[in-house]
Write a structure and sequence with these properties.
This protein is α/β, with parallel strands linked by helices and about 450 residues long. The protein contains 20 helices and 11 strands. The strands form 2 sheets. It has an 8-stranded mixed sheet, with helices on both faces. It has a 3-stranded mixed sheet with strand order 5-4-7. About 40% of the residues are buried. The chain binds 3,4-dihydroxybenzoic acid and fe (iii) ion.
């Protein structure tokens, strides 16, 4: 089922949603660059040269050169971004807004002075109001359409929208399994420096051999990967509780040792945007992240499950959960979020095989005189309960994680997101099949836990 977009038939109105944002990404980023005086200077000196520095479409560049705001919005621009261009030209918001209406500046000002435009007749397309006519267009836009046909970006989105839908109208994405794994940076270093055969590391990597085999036989199209950023992409400037990566690719971050020598992580912008819209409409507030560098929290589990290929074998949607600065989300909230993510994924009109991974944990404490805390018994009980009674497990308060599994053991709340997305929780399947379970102490400061749960229809 496609997402509800009731705003599409409001006349003379473009709602800036994920589709618009994808289309207009570089146009809007170019506009943002004009918030620096030196950039405004360079742009004014040679517009064409400045515009070639931004990977926009030729049409977007032409729309900017024509200063046609309707055209820019049509190609994905948003007024708050475009206003930076207007401000560079010395325009007020009233001048910018008025320029899109087909009125002169004076007419528009007069309309506002007389109480503004009435919504009467302007709520739905096809009514008789004064905002129903064709949108005002510059000569440049009309000339462009004559020589280039209709909007290329629109065609790309339209092609995307129909891709995969043709064969079976009932087809939709499915979550086939959930995978859980710890994510210690030293595991990544052991891989990167060829130490996996050393006695310290060998038993750990041996525990993931069956998983790599299983993964080869159950390779998904997309992994929805729940992880936490460790003060890598997000510093103390902005701390999102839940953030979804909506970009086409994600660079491995430099966490201070240089970036890990692992391939670029390829995203799935269209599915990610769909999930974002669906989950937000289910009343969960997500941060949308179009630029995201991924740290060991994401890349280490990928190595453990995929090995070290030249390119990652499937697409990945990174989903970050704040477990660094309190308040962090409760287990209960995470479990409910997993259920919302399931509904979002299963409402996507393309027959994709999707896995959801929960990463981080298990018991570990990286700080203070209590560093080194491990609670193997508690961890194994957590695994038992995650498999058999996740709803009950999700009610466990934070303080229990901290006291029993160490301050960094709180990462385990992320596993509840993945578990909440399984079909038995939705009441539409049998309890999951445990395809693999593994536990090992230590990796660096951490107890490593790992599970593969297959959905049973
Ligand atoms: C370690 C574990 C982590 O989860 C992490 O994010 C950083 C370090 C460790 O055990 O060293
Ligand atoms: Fe961690």
């Amino acid at each position: 089922m496609a997402l509800d977009k009731p705003y599409l038939d409001v006349p003379g109105t473009t709602i800036f949603d994920a589709d618009q944002s994808r289309k207009g990404y570089w146009l809007n980023q170019f506009c943002m660059s004009l918030m620096k005086a030196e950039n405004r200077e360079r742009f004014k000196k040679d517009e064409a040269a400045y515009l070639t520095e931004w990977p926009m479409t030729d049409e977007q560049r032409a729309a900017v050169r024509a200063r046609d705001l309707n055209w820019m919005m049509r190609t994905g621009g948003n007024i708050y971004f475009l206003s930076k261009l207007g401000a560079t030209d010395g325009l007020s918001f009233q001048q910018m807004a008025g320029s899109m209406t087909g009125m002169t500046e004076q007419q528009y000002r007069d309309m506002m002075v007389h109480g503004g435009r009435s919504p009467e007749g302007n709520r739905y397309q096809g009514e008789g109001g004064d905002a129903q006519g064709p949108m005002s267009r510059s000569d440049a836009w009309m000339a462009w359409e004559k020589s280039h046909g209709s909007d290329l970006a629109e065609q790309v989105l339209a092609a995307e929208a129909t891709a995969g839908k043709a064969a079976d109208p009932a087809a939709h994405a499915r979550i086939t399994a959930s995978v859980y794994s710890s994510h210690v940076p030293a595991i990544g270093a052991a891989i990167d420096h060829g130490k996996t055969e050393e006695p310290y590391w060998k038993p750990l990597f041996a525990g993931f051999e069956p998983s790599k085999q299983w993964m080869k036989e159950h390779m998904p199209d997309v992994v929805f990967l729940v992880y936490n950023d460790h003060a890598t992409n997000f510093d103390l400037g902005v701390i999102p509780t839940f953030a979804i990566g909506t970009a086409a690719e994600f660079q491995p971050a430099d966490e201070g040792y240089g970036p890990r020598p692992v391939p670029m992580v390829m995203g799935h912008p269209k599915l990610a945007s769909h999930i974002a819209q669906s989950v937000i409409q289910q009343d969960f507030d997500l941060t949308l992240v179009n630029e995201l560098k991924v740290d060991h929290g994401l890349t280490v589990p990928m190595n453990l499950l995929f090995g070290s290929p030249a390119a990652w074998p499937c697409k990945v949607i990174p989903f970050h959960v704040n477990v660094v600065q309190y308040p962090v989300p409760s287990g209960k909230r995470c479990f409910q979020l997993g259920q919302a993510i399931r509904r979002a994924i299963e409402s996507y009109d393309e027959p994709l095989n999707v896995q959801i991974w929960g990463t981080g944990g298990m018991s570990h404490q990286l700080q203070g005189p209590r560093a080194g805390l491990i609670n193997a018994e508690w961890d194994n009980r957590f695994l038992d309960r995650l498999i058999a009674d996740p709803a009950d497990l999700s009610t466990m308060p934070h303080i229990d994680y901290v006291r029993e599994a160490g301050s960094e053991g709180i990462e385990l709340v992320m596993w509840l997101i993945a578990r909440g997305a399984m079909s038995d929780v939705a009441g539409s399947g049998k309890p999951p099949r445990v395809a693999h379970r593994f536990f090992h102490v230590p990796a660096s400061n951490t107890a490593v836990g790992h599970l593969i749960l297959e959905n049973q229809l």
